[in-house]
Specification:
heterodimer, A: 317 residues, mainly alpha, 12 helices, 67% helix, 0% strand, flat, B: 328 residues, globular
């Protein structure tokens, strides 16, 4: 016998007159009700790849932020006598670059700056995308037409080229933060489309109609009803975009239009490319670190997507 | 179908015109042809600056400049770069170079994506599935230029040593002056040798993303009722798979590929930089660094043209493959 409210029977035994002797009903199974949030969390925690990605990512973050406190070298410490030594020599775990700066310290600093870039870019893109998607989806009509046509127009130009042109306009914005703003300013296009199509479906649902009938303002409906129902898509988009942002920052820096006045993981990888033959540690370590971070973010994003919608894990007939 | 095509064609032309206005606005706001003169030491005379402003017609209203430029582009005249060379012929020459790489990369990526996507879907949860899923995950997380550099620095040389002969080239799109000294066949093989590595590195990222999509699409199709009916009717597995499964599973891929053209073009700029090709990517970066307005405008127009053309082809192809679209 299963019941969803085991506590009720324990606190209110035998409240009906036709069961005077059943003070405690014997049950074999009880099922505790789980909220949607709990279900999603459980599915995520059970996903081995996603959990692996999450653990590795957290480990990387801990090393990057707590590492400099215990590590012997500073990222900006120039030691010409130690220039270009390989990994493991003279106390430099991963070696040094041409100026004698320790690679491990630089990588830790680079990860710090790059994670800042990711957070800022995703927040900016999320805000704009949410706004545009909500306006277009909820109000429909000419606003929808106008906004979506604008999005399509911007998408006809290859994204990387737009970013290059815009970045070339602002030579002072060659820091991790500046690049984050530029990437975020153009990263909202796909989110607005995703949210708009979701809202087009959601807005016909009964709870929206009910809220409207009760006199809820548009803003209230949008923020208290629509957004919580789109949270799955938003979170998945945010994680997958985070991976794209970090790779985009690296590509921009490689082409010469990205981070120049700051250390970032992308910059370390770009500079390592030119040293690939002579000093392979400068090439491999930053590149592998970037690969690991992007891989972990992708695994986490896929895990969240599967947690919200496990339908694609069906075994095929 | 005919009217559908006409409607789509007209809509594409409109989008192209609107895109040209956006491109023009963006570039005019970003690049000032007078920049090198303004920064020169000793500073140029105001009269000379004014003369240049009039020559480049910088003081004309925006729409007059836009119309001037657009009417030129439509007749094939992309204007003159800051150095005085006409932009059009330069762009077209370099377009041929880049197009080789982009087309080869897209064909390779599509073929591989279909094969791997179908394979991993049919053999879901078997070792092949896990292996290819791992490979695609890694490829998606790789920075393009790092992977290209990896191929260039480490794979090419080892491969050439292994074979004993210089097959894979890492620099440029052809050996210098081979057009003058070589026969057509020699030129062809030389270009092919130069083409392999850039094509592979450009194709890998797209292949990874598309194969994952194709796998999901194929899984959907394999679980569908008509596939079950085909098998229940007694069709051999391979026949049911190809005639009923694959045909349906390929349809969503056309949309994804069309949307991915912009990404491939961006990747082509990066790949050309890594392998030092004298193609459109190099031209674009050179012009942006030199604050050169007309070449960048020409580049963006050609890029937008190809993106819109690919979208149109994908729309039409989708309508051909899925009759529900053209009848709606």
């Amino acid at each position: 016998m299963t019941t969803t409210q085991p506590q009720d029977l324990k606190t209110n035994p035998a409240t009906t007159v036709d069961q005077p002797q059943a003070a405690e009903v014997e049950r074999e199974f009880t099922v505790k009700a789980r909220s949607q949030r709990e279900q999603v969390t459980r599915r995520f925690l059970r996903n081995k790849q996603a959990m692996g990605g999450l653990l590795v990512f957290l480990a990387v973050l801990v090393i990057a932020w707590a590492g400099p406190l215990v590590y012997g070298f500073e990222f900006s410490e120039v030691k010409p006598e130690d220039a270009s030594v390989g990994p493991g020599t003279l106390g430099h775990i991963l070696g040094t670059d041409g100026l004698g700066r320790d690679l491990m310290a630089q990588i830790m600093r680079g990860i710090q700056r790059s994670t800042l870039t990711i957070v800022v870019a995703v927040v900016i893109a999320l805000t704009v995308g949410l706004l545009v998607g909500l306006l277009a989806g909820y109000y429909g009509g000419w606003i929808d037409n106008l906004l979506m046509r604008l999005v399509d127009l911007i998408l006809t130009i290859p994204g990387l080229v737009v970013l290059i042109v815009v970045a070339s306009n602002f030579p002072d914005a060659r820091t991790a933060l500046g690049i984050a703003v530029i990437i975020g300013a153009f990263g909202w296009l796909d989110l607005s489309r995703i949210l708009r199509s979701q809202i087009l479906g959601l807005r016909e649902r009964e709870f929206v109609e009910a809220a409207h009938a009760l006199g809820a303002s548009d803003r209230r409906i949008m923020f208290k009803h629509l957004i919580p129902n789109m949270l799955g898509s938003i979170i998945v988009w945010a994680t997958l975009t985070a991976a794209t942002v970090i790779l985009l920052e690296a590509s921009l820096t490689y082409l010469g239009f990205g981070v120049a006045n700051d250390i970032s993981l992308g910059r370390l990888v770009s500079e390592g490319v030119s040293a690939a033959q002579t000093r392979p540690w400068l090439f491999y370590f930053p590149g592998l670190m970037l690969l690991v971070i992007a891989l972990c973010i992708n695994l986490i994003g896929d895990g969240i997507r599967d947690a919200f919608d496990p339908s694609n894990k069906r075994v095929r007939a | 179908m005919f009217f559908f095509t006409i409607r789509r064609l007209l809509s594409s032309v409109l989008v192209l015109v609107a895109s040209s206005m956006l491109v023009f606005a963006l570039c005019v706001a970003s690049f000032n042809p007078l920049e090198p003169f303004l920064l020169r030491q000793p500073p140029a005379e105001p009269a000379a600056i004014q003369g240049l402003r009039e020559r480049y017609r910088l003081d004309d209203p925006f729409f007059v400049r836009y119309w001037d430029w657009l009417s030129g582009v439509v007749t094939g005249d992309f204007g003159i770069s800051n150095g005085g060379t006409p932009v059009g012929p330069e762009l077209m020459g370099r377009l041929g170079v880049t197009a080789r790489m982009v087309v080869a990369a897209m064909v390779l990526a599509i073929l591989l994506a279909v094969v791997v996507g179908v394979l991993t879907a049919v053999r879901q949860y078997k070792p092949e599935d896990y292996f290819f899923t791992f490979v695609t995950y890694v490829l998606i997380a790789l920075p393009t230029f790092w992977f290209a550099a990896l191929l260039k620095e480490f794979v090419a040389i080892q491969f050439n040593d292994l074979v004993g002969q210089r097959i894979l080239f890492t620099l440029g799109e052809q050996s210098p002056a081979i057009e003058v000294t070589g026969t057509t066949s020699e030129i062809f093989w030389d270009r092919l040798g130069h083409l392999i590595l850039p094509t592979v590195s450009l194709a890998m990222l797209s292949f990874a993303a598309w194969s994952r999509f194709q796998r999901a699409s194929m899984l959907d199709v394999l679980g569908s009722d008509y596939m079950r009916l085909a098998r229940a009717k007694g069709l051999p597995w391979r026949r049911a798979l190809i005639r009923h499964g694959l045909r349906n599973a390929l349809i969503p891929l056309t949309t994804v590929v069309a949307l991915g053209v912009g990404l491939v073009m961006g990747g082509a700029v990066i790949t050309e930089t890594v392998f030092v090709w004298h193609g459109m990517g190099e031209y674009l970066l050179m012009s942006i660094n030199a604050d050169d307005l007309n070449p960048v405008l020409g580049w963006m127009m050609i890029a937008a043209f190809f993106v819109i053309a690919f979208n149109l082809i994908a729309d039409l192809l989708y309508a051909v493959l899925d009759p529900r679209i053209r009848l709606s």
